[in-house]
User: Fold this.
Amino acid sequence: MFRFFSVDDHIIEPADVWTSRVPAKYRDVAPHVVEEGDRQFWEFEDQRITTMGTNAVVGKPPDEWSVEPISFDDMRRACYDPVLRAADLRSQGIFASVNFPTLPRFGGALFAGFKDKVLAHHCVRAWNDFLIDEWCAADPDMFVPMVIVQLWDPELAAEEIQRCIEKGAKAVCFVENTTPLGLPSLHDESHWDPIFGLCEEAELPVCMHIGSSGSSSVPDPKTPMIVTFASVAFAGAALASINMMMSPVPRRFPNIKLVWSEGGIGWVPAAMERADRQYARHLWSHASNDLMPSEVCRRNMWFCMIEEPVGIKYRHDFEIDHILWESDYPHADTPFPNTQENASEVFAGVPQDEIDLITHRNAEQLFHHQLVGPQPAGTSAG
Amino acid sequence: MFRFFSVDDHIIEPADVWTSRVPAKYRDVAPHVVEEGDRQFWEFEDQRITTMGTNAVVGKPPDEWSVEPISFDDMRRACYDPVLRAADLRSQGIFASVNFPTLPRFGGALFAGFKDKVLAHHCVRAWNDFLIDEWCAADPDMFVPMVIVQLWDPELAAEEIQRCIEKGAKAVCFVENTTPLGLPSLHDESHWDPIFGLCEEAELPVCMHIGSSGSSSVPDPKTPMIVTFASVAFAGAALASINMMMSPVPRRFPNIKLVWSEGGIGWVPAAMERADRQYARHLWSHASNDLMPSEVCRRNMWFCMIEEPVGIKYRHDFEIDHILWESDYPHADTPFPNTQENASEVFAGVPQDEIDLITHRNAEQLFHHQLVGPQPAGTSAG
Assistant:
């Protein structure tokens, strides 16, 4: 049996995440659920979100899939119930799970767009408190706390990360790119230092999910959007990770740990080679002649895969201990309920020690969280 | 000795390409060269271009490179002289060369932005006449005519392609993506039919160069632009080629031949696998359940590389007869003047028949143009 540590799942937030936690005066403008007929919506400030859980399709037959579950009743309860979630995951052999937000968007950037930044600050804290005190507390062996931050204020973000570390936070959720969101550049020498500096010091991996830039990479608005978006998302991760390789971040913080979620791994060797070649040829165009992009990539970056035989085939052209596994529950990419069977095909022929690294040991080390779950038959605990 | 067919080089247009060919009344508004001090500029309509030849750096030491040669005298003459160009190429073992335009942009899209579309039409024809009658005519064994088209009018474009076929055209230059240029979508069922239909019928490959979309994929404006652009360009080719895989074009024209220039090859196997997986999972979101993206890719697409050991290593995970070689003269990526030496490293350990396919035989077949040049020692002509 495979024993999995999933570094990428998704919480669908219950209705009271914010209303039960923000100060009373903000309850009407913080995210709350309203109903119209059989539909439910999230409302906040002067906005309304028309889906309760983007692509939360787990457990439905594919011909009923859509991007827009219209109410909580339209979803499998394990989307928003941590006890049921943990049961679903364990049934697959998944014994640890890192979760991204949904309403706050995959990088937590929603609140950076709020007009009222005090409200936004309370909303960030409310999500983190919900995550740690409610979601992860429901099953501390299973759930690994990854917190969101005040992207518009790195000093405030560092304070929030520190507050959450004291409550058990093990990772920080960030955005693939900053400038498409109207935030300062990663190339602004010291702007982001408070976040990356603290994450380096506290050994918290910084996780960036595909589609968290606030801009789509899809080059044609008339393409079949879902399938094209999901297909090209690796290119978005490539753009973001290469931009990061060229940036001051890994040079200022040589021990920073950067995780690119749902971007796949099979393209990474070709990308490193190309970036190195260009970096060496175009020294005239950039100031630094220190680390090659591939050195940054191999030292500071982790890439993730769900079911990717090609990526597995090429695993030794990247770093075998920088490859992570993800379940993507409850999105369309999740192998649930066939995780074990599918993995048998994906990992066919791979030595057990390498399977263990990819499925859980790399993540255990990176997130400082040990799997608690049945040991493989015929082995002792270890 | 390696014998090369380069499917991607660049013409720097001489000053009189348009002024000597457009009707007299257009000479002042068609592209023409003006001088100010020691600088030269291209002017047309009400615009001025501040570089005479983007990144035309061949023959200069890297510490003198820039994106902006400021005059013809600032460039190696072989940039704009076909006789000298052919000599440079032959010195490298390159015996055939397909060339992209420079001032009209890599996809010929400059003229689609002209206010006066009659002028634009004359400018397209002038470039094609220059290409065929002057550039390629200077060395018909070496130069393979690839023409640009009236992107704003597919019917007119088809007429132009037909006109050029009669003059010897062997390929058509197109753009990676259409919508970022304000042109109709590739997913508009029949809009582009006149171009792709004629190219299929006449067996003309359609070549799309990185950076020809009119929009950059670079996600951060403060990144070291040249090195990041060149590094991430494969992601741009991935976005465009996957969009094309999902489009009606290869379904309406099953024999269309699509060439992605300077995008590299090493990422293609991972991209095909991901696209297939998403296409199969998300049948609910798109109408068609016919060809998988990888089937389109393996049947209709060719990918190109300059020096890419990783791509060579993965060559059998794509199609060995759909990989092409490029020299990228006179840009910074060109291996000139070390083409043979560098190729010895890139192709180390590859069987000779596969080297022959990649370096020239695939291109000979695709472009219907046979290499004329010295045969390898110890072999008969063949």
Summary: The two ends of chain B are 16 Å apart (CA to CA).
